[in-house]
Amino acid sequence: MRHSPSLLTxxxxxxxxxxxxxxxxPADPHSFAEPxxxxxxxxxxxxxxxxxxxxxxxxxxxxxxxxxxTAPFVVDTDGLAIGGAFDQDGRPLFVDLASLPDPLRGQRxxxxxxxxxxxxxxxxxxxxxxxxxxxxxxxxxxxxKQPFLFTxxxxxxxxxxxxxxxxxxxxxxxxxxxxxxxxLVPLMSAMRRExxxxxxxxxxxxxxxxxxxxLACGDLASxxxxxxxxxxxxxxxxxLAASELADTEAMVAACEGLFGPYRWGRYDVLVxxxxxxxxxxxxxxxxxxxxxxxxxxxxxVSLIAHELAxxxxxxxxxxxxxxxxxxxxxxxxxxxxxIMERVFxxxxxxxxxxxxxxxxxxxxxxxxxxxxxLHIDLAGRNPDDGMTGVPYQKGAAFLRRLEQLFGRERxxxxxxxxxxxxxxxxxxxxxxxxxLQRELLAQDPAxxxxxxxxxxxxxxxxxxxxxAADSALFAAxxxxxxxxxSGTAPDRLDVTGWVTQQWLRFLHGLGDCTPERMGELDxxxxxxxxxxxxxxxxxxxxxxxxxxxxxxxxxxxxxxTVGRRKFVKPLYEAMLAxxxxxxxxxxxxxxxRPRYHAVTQxxxxxxxxxxxR
Length: 613
Ligand code: BES
Ligand code: ZN
Fold this sequence. Notes:
- By secondary structure, the protein is α+β, with helices and mostly antiparallel strands.
- It contains 19 helices and 22 strands.
- The site of zinc ion has 4 residues, from α5.
């Protein structure tokens, strides 16, 4: 296995020395901002939403902290029409907007400051195709009568709807006023919301990274789940959403019991229309979620545990740059499993951990070595490229390994202190390694001798000491798969009491099937008619691979309504892997593309273009 000598190695060697002083702003290759010279501390947003032209128009105020008296205020923008910049007294300031956009970072905007400039106002409007924003036609909603808008900021898309210093190391408090058409309800990732005559006002008084500023607007209503939790959705979805998410409060309480107080006031969930490109997004106080988790039996709510867990790992303690993304996602997957274990029991958590590790193993087989490192080099690349199973599953496996070596009690205390001591701060991998060394490894050198931290963080692949994720309930599934392979007919298998995770194990273990065998399986278990999106997606992918045509209509409908990238990507991939697949994929995609968010479009455009070459 290759080891790369690195900053981390040097750090580990020097770690018995005094604690390092963290650089406040590590270099961020994904932002033009120069926060070490002039930084924004507070953002005041004022926007009017125009659904007709798909434009948000208004201004943003930045409260500045100036370290370098002669430096300009540099912000990131992408596709914004800039109307001008002004100081606190309304005097115009000279602006320099890069004429040529950088393919990754967008357009640098520099505002020249006067000696006495403390606040800067930037007037602007967004482009109709702003990457963060998806403006939905009424047909794309459940109600079908009103349009809908939502934003998705992570990783570097916030700059396409707000001119700001779009680096996760530049935390800001913020407030906003949103004006929207009558009948539509605006919501934001804020601690406070107030409806006034001049619009809806929001405030977030904890400093957050810019990717966590989010907005949604549509025909929305809410239902309380507890004193501090509620679900928001289109009125027609509210009953289903509220019963599915009934355990939300129990999850918050479980995570608080493990890792310290929930520090954000309310925890609400917004169920979006199905074009939402992710499963979930941890927008503070208001998780954004895909409606595809509403299975009717709470079987997919680990996604809520995950987004909730980000309230500690990610939102409280944030990756300082996108190469430190595993500090957000690896920790969060670990916390997610701990929440699931507390609320739904060990069997459920063990199955979900196992499925995650299986996905990672599958993915590692085709991932370049450089992308198998937790501490990934993303300079010159879209941070989206780092969104593989590695930061998620390998990151979580690393924490489970620590748990195995040092015991739960010590690792829980260690994590809780990590969150407490770094609350509302952005941290690098080096800071974590330093902390790990002092606060855990140094306490028990004998246990520490059994883990090669540099190998885990800087090396490729899954280290041999990664803990196994065994599940007795999966052993039962494997037995039935063996029976199937040795000739038992599908309708004679014993599937009594199987839960969703077991079915996913089953579908994964089927391997390649003939169309006839697929037909038998469908006859026995009605997969094509399932209301569970995870099972359906696995089944549709198998069908494409097997050229089983019994799912054709369901597949078309699914791809035309669901824009969740994790689901649609493997389906197009499966089509493209077949001899006749390119034409089929293109035919469906040409109809579906306008209904997908830019994030999903970008991934599929590249995939289909590559197959077309
Ligand atoms: N923060 C991520 C989503 C994300 C990551 C968006 C990077 C943009 C860039 C979110 O917490 C997440 O991980 N969502 C997962 C679900 C989760 C259960 C693994 C998803 O959407 O699939
Ligand atoms: Zn996440």
